[in-house]
Structure formats: structure tokens, C-alpha cells
Specification:
Blueprint (H helix, E strand, L loop, with lengths): L2 H16 L19 H15 L14 H16 L5
Helix pairs in contact: 1-2, 1-3
């Protein structure tokens, strides 16, 4: 899965489950710019796991500040669960 596909998936989750329609770029700060509260952050993490069919390790989300951090977390989870298929 490419970074572009991951970003599109993140955008989908923001649109569908958090009703955030603004463009999502890697530089966006999740809590400051998007002003997500703790419930919205939990919803984001759960729906990303569902969308990408991954399970994040407990505590992984605590270091997520930007969309770039989310992309890296999803990439790491995909690789650890399915191997590197970008070859």
C-alpha cells in the first residue's frame, strides 16, 4: 500500500466518521488544527484500524501528533502484520 493510498484512507475516515471535510495533508496537526477531543481521537484510531485491517499496539497512538505520524503508524502496522508488499 502506497503512502498516497494511506492518505486517501485517512481522509475517508475523517470525512465519514468525524465529519471533517477539510483536506488532510501530512503536515496537519491533529489536535491543534483539527481540534479533535479525546472521544474523536479514539474514534479516529478505531476506525483507522477497521479501515486498514490492522491493530495498533497499545500506546502507539500516544506519539501521534500529525497526519504524517498517522501514516507512519499505519505503515508500521501493515508491515508488522502483513510484511512489506511494496517490494
Amino acid at each position: 500500500m502506497t503512502r498516497s493510498e494511506i492518505l486517501k484512507g485517512i481522509q475517508y475516515v475523517f470525512n465519514e466518521y468525524l465529519q471533517i471535510e477539510s483536506a488532510i495533508t501530512p503536515e496537519v496537526d491533529i489536535t491543534n488544527e483539527l481540534q479533535l477531543d479525546s472521544l474523536e481521537l479514539l474514534t479516529l484510531i478505531v476506525e483507522l484500524e477497521n479501515h486498514f485491517l490492522v491493530a495498533f499496539e497499545h500506546g502507539d497512538e500516544k506519539d501521534v501528533k500529525t497526519i504524517e505520524d498517522l501514516i507512519r503508524l499505519i505503515e508500521k502496522s501493515i508491515i508488522s502484520q502483513y510484511g512489506d508488499s511494496n517490494g
